[in-house]
Design brief:
A 7-stranded parallel β-sheet has the order 3-2-1-4-5-6-7, with helices on both faces. Helix content is 45%, strand content 14%. It has one domain: Rossmann fold (3-Layer(aba) Sandwich). It is built from 9 helices and 7 strands; from the N terminus they run E-H-E-H-E-H-E-H-E-H-E-H-H-H-E-H. With 274 residues, it is α/β, with parallel strands linked by helices. Bound molecules: nicotinamide-adenine-dinucleotide.
């Protein structure tokens, strides 16, 4: 459980969606950098197994069952997590999810669900930690948006619009809480090869993603955790209200069809490590 960087020594971090994917990668890296971590997830067995692994390495990680769609249960998990160490310095909201469908065809209930899953859950968590952070002299919040929140895509209005709203919420919160030394930033990942993502797309679809990314490959959850932990850490002490794009260059292109033919497509070497 040692790492060269110990940016979170003595800090307490709460990660929603901390059992798997990018959330688990954040929990792992926070623990290895000295944070006491509380992972909240609907997949409690997976969260506990991760906590046990990290605690065996010398970390301090606790797992709490919480479904962000069950508001009372989620509030209880947040309150239990805050009580665990009596404070919270960092909140990272990773739990979220998507659904597709054309505006003309998609039921309004799907929009409502994605609102609760992505936006309302982030609000609930922020409202829970802010009073404590104010009392203890500040903190940092990282909101999980997406490059989907920066552009329009056919079939993805429910997801994209929620991720866009989260960027604006981040900016509003940054202004409201700046005076209390609470920084609020959003992360906008591009396609990340989490287990869930890999399970939901075909090999051809994955190749299409790779072709659209300047680095020629999807990101690894641990690469996103690095970007998220930068925003959460004191290294970003003058960064608030920002959204950091970590997408391997996907949104750096306007996808001009004529330019693709001249570009040999070759993936950059993947990052090694967990
Ligand atoms: N994977 C990508 O390509 C990608 C890109 C941009 C943004 N995102 C966003 O990142 C976040 C995580 O994505 P991921 O691919 O790492 O997903 P993931 O499914 O691997 O991980 C998300 C974690 O959240 C938990 N979770 C899901 N629903 C929950 C709920 N209702 N209550 C509590 N926990 C819940 C899951 O159990 C899991 O542990 C999501 O908000 C997603 O919208 C993902």
């Amino acid at each position: 459980m040692t790492r060269e960087r110990r940016r979170f020594e003595g800090k307490v971090a709460i990660v929603s969606g901390g059992a798997d994917g990018m959330g688990a990668a954040c929990v792992r890296q926070l623990a290895r950098e000295g944070a006491k971590v509380c992972a909240i997830d609907v997949k409690i067995d997976m969260a506990r197994a991760l906590a046990d692994d990290l605690n065996r390495e010398g970390g301090t990680v606790a797992a709490f069952r919480g479904d962000v769609l069950d508001e009372a249960g989620f509030r209880k998990a947040l309150s239990d997590a805050m009580a665990e160490h009596g404070r919270v310095d960092t909140l990272i909201n990773v739990a979220g999810g998507s659904a597709s469908g054309l505006v003309s065809e998609l039921d309004l209930e799907v929009y409502d669900r994605l609102y609760r899953l992505n936006f309302r859950s982030t609000l609930i968590a922020a409202k829970a930690v802010i009073p404590t952070m104010r009392q203890t002299g500040g903190g940092s919040i990282v909101v999980m948006s997406s490059i989907s929140g920066l552009r329009g895509d056919p079939d993805w209005s429910a997801y994209n619009s929620m991720k866009a709203a989260l960027i604006n919420l981040t900016q509003c919160l940054a202004w409201e809480e700046g005076q209390h030394a609470i920084r609020v930033n959003a992360i906008c990942p591009g396609p990340i090869a989490s287990e869930r993502m890999l399970a939901t797309i075909s090999t051809e679809h994955a190749q299409e993603y790779n072709n659209a990314i300047a680095l020629g490959r999807m990101g690894h959850p641990s690469e996103l955790a690095e970007a998220i932990l930068f925003l959460a850490s004191d290294q970003a002490s003058f960064v608030t209200g920002a959204h950091l794009v970590a997408d391997g260059g996907l949104t750096a292109s306007t996808a001009q069809p004529t330019s693709w033919a001249k570009l040999p497509r070759k993936a950059a070497p993947p990052r090694t490590g967990d």
